[in-house]
């Protein structure tokens, strides 16, 4: 099976809707980006505008999930009105429970059991108005047991046989272990999983070797959180409140924003098939798009690996980001 998810010649940048489909998210400055207009109709219009801008720039991979508020419904409405051709990925395993509030005690509830999969697959079909091209276990980890659940795996194998690219997204400091376990699965002599969406960025590159192994085995690799939920942007909260000095220096020398440098670093990984932008505004998207036009070697990437944190330290900091 080919690892490609995109049409030939398409930009390898995609748009993730985690910050667009609900009024609260953990990206730095998310509340500032959305402003006061957070009612459903306003956010639908804003999401349509972002999808229009992304499509006009040539992007053709859009990523949603059941837990991203109304992201699937917004994307489905846009697909019906505008363009059916983009590649669409979605995820199951979390349920959105915040009730359109940013101050909710709990925003999403995780459950990787068969009943959740059986409920959320038709919900996704209804929201999107069509079958997603890619369907992932949302934030699979070894401790949820989802990779040992024969009933879940059998259902995912049915979807794979029906033409859906099935896989998993990963999270936490043990992403590599989870992925390597996923690569060994067998259902009736085949592995139903063939796509992984993982966090990789200049602060947390530890999954890189496992992602390279997956890509070499024919899996498709989608990179999420390449700007570390805003920590690798001009809003970064690293150190004393600034982006890492090496990143800021490279960005200034190139006349671009730090996020473009961070995205370029992900795009330069030979195993990365798609890298997601999590932009909330057109300006952020325009800044992110600059990553597609950096000359090879232009980021002086040898200066950047020293930014990496210990995985446990990185994920602890991420877990403390506020919902805004």
Q: In summary, what is this structure?
A:
It contains 11 helices and 10 strands. The chain is an alpha/beta fold and 324 residues long. The protein has a single domain (13-319), classed as NADP-dependent oxidoreductase domain (TIM Barrel, Alpha-Beta Barrel).
Q: Determine Rg (CA atoms, Å).
A: 18 Å
What share of residues are in beta strands? 5-15%
Instruction: Choose one word for the global shape.
Output: globular
User: Which superfamily, in CATH terms, is the homologous superfamily?
Assistant: NADP-dependent oxidoreductase domain
Helix/strand class: alpha/beta
| CATH A-level architecture | Alpha-Beta Barrel
- Which spans of ≥5 residues are poorly predicted at pLDDT below 50? none
Mean of all residue-level pLDDT scores? 94
The order of strands across the largest sheet is 1-2-3-6-7-8-9-10
Supply the number of structural domains. 1
Q: Which H/E pattern describes the elements?
A: EHHEHEEEHEHEHEHEHHEHH
Under the CATH scheme, which class?
Alpha Beta
Helical segment tally? 11
Q: Estimate percent helicity.
A: 25-40%
Q: Span between N and C termini?
A: 41 Å
Counted beta strands: 10
Instruction: Summarize the biggest pleated sheet.
Output: 8 strands, parallel, barrel
CATH topological fold name? TIM Barrel
How does this structure look, described?
- The chain is α/β, with parallel strands linked by helices and 324 residues long.
- The protein has a single domain, classed as NADP-dependent oxidoreductase domain (TIM Barrel).
- Helix content is 35%, strand content 15%.
- It is built from eleven helices and ten strands.
- It has helices spanning 30-34, 40-56, 71-81, 114-128, 150-161, 175-182, 208-216, 245-254, 258-267, 282-289, 311-319, and strands at 13-16, 61-63, 87-92, 94-96, 108-110, 134-140, 165-170, 193-199, 220-224, 274-277.
- It has an eight-stranded parallel barrel, surrounded by six helices. Strands 4-5 form a two-stranded antiparallel ribbon.
- α7 links the parallel β8 and β9.
- α3 packs parallel to α4.
